[in-house]
Design a protein that fits this description.
The chain is of the alpha/beta class. The chain has nine helices and nine strands. About 45% of the residues are buried.
Length: about 290
């Protein structure tokens, strides 16, 4: 009965509970809409409003988890581009990206390099002289090693590179201002603290060309209303996130649009994709243009 009690709570509202002090009484807010409104009202900081107060993995814990995933080839972690949920999302992302007209791509949180390999594979045969260069960044040494083996060895240093972000702090990434055409991050922000999420958005804004730069994001989201499979998987995922966060790679279902809007990003397209295999999680894919200069 304890398990079904937990599951029941998850189904009611995606189980994001926010305690609101009102004198000596505490009321629990359960709907996602009210949750976001109250988080915003109570925790808003200048230019960094909070939309999600859930605890996340520390940078060190995340590094250990993804090092472990990299050593286990049968794990979904780090292989999101061809996972059950990641495959359809990556297809949608590539339709938005127009990588064929891009020269400089920066990917934050490369995992094992599946997305880079997919894009570079498509570029190579059709146009060997393509000027596309893929720069990858990850904080997991094992994932960096996998990217090196999968992409740098295969395509060469003139086509791609990979860097280890030892601190795990997005602010420590060095990039020439406005030199990037596409800034990509898939299934990475959903395991970060809100502070680091905003740092990634700031990095993307500094990096992207104001005229034609595009930010491309993908992450898991709530699938309660999309299908029976995504409903059931979302319930299980939410329970696991509460009691065994490392099992799901520290990733939590969320909506990224509020963070983009808070920073002034101009959202061009949003697609929610259904998975075509296990794990049956829905995804949110976003294409956005940098904020307009003041």
């Amino acid at each position: 009965f304890f398990f079904f009690e937990i599951v029941g709570e998850s189904v009611v509202s995606t189980r994001q509970s926010l305690s609101v002090e009102a004198g000596a009484r505490t009321s629990m807010i359960h709907t996602p809409v009210l949750y976001y409104i109250l988080c915003f009202a109570m925790s808003c900081k200048e230019n960094n409003p909070s939309f999600d107060s859930r605890t996340t993995l520390s940078r060190e814990d995340a590094r250990h988890v993804y090092d472990s995933f990299a050593e286990k080839s049968n794990q979904v972690g780090g292989n999101d581009a061809d996972s059950g949920y990641g495959g359809p999302a990556v297809t949608a992302l590539m339709e938005m990206a127009d990588f064929g007209s891009s020269r400089q791509v920066l990917e934050y949180g490369t995992g094992q390099g599946k997305l880079a390999e997919l894009v570079l594979d498509q570029q190579q045969p059709s146009d060997p002289s393509s000027q596309l260069f893929w720069r990858g960044i990850d904080q997991s040494p094992k994932m960096v090693q996998r990217f090196q083996e999968r992409c740098v060895v295969k395509f060469g240093k003139e086509k791609c590179s990979i860097e280890l972000l030892e601190s795990g702090d997005p602010s420590d990434v060095h990039v020439q201002a406005h030199s990037i055409d596409r800034f990509v991050s898939t299934y990475c922000l959903d395991l970060m603290s809100e502070q680091d999420m905003y740092k990634v958005l700031d990095l993307a804004e500094r990096s992207l060309c104001p005229e034609n730069g595009i930010l491309l994001l993908a992450g898991i989201t709530w699938g309660y209303r999309m299908s029976m499979q995504t409903f059931a998987m979302t319930v299980v995922w939410e329970v696991l996130y509460k009691i065994w966060r490392k099992k799901v790679g520290g990733c939590r279902p969320q909506e990224l649009q509020p963070y983009l809007k808070a920073r002034g990003w101009r959202i061009e397209k949003v697609v929610r994709t259904l998975p075509d295999g296990y794990p049956w999680m829905a995804s949110e894919v976003i294409a956005a243009r940098p904020p307009l200069a003041d």
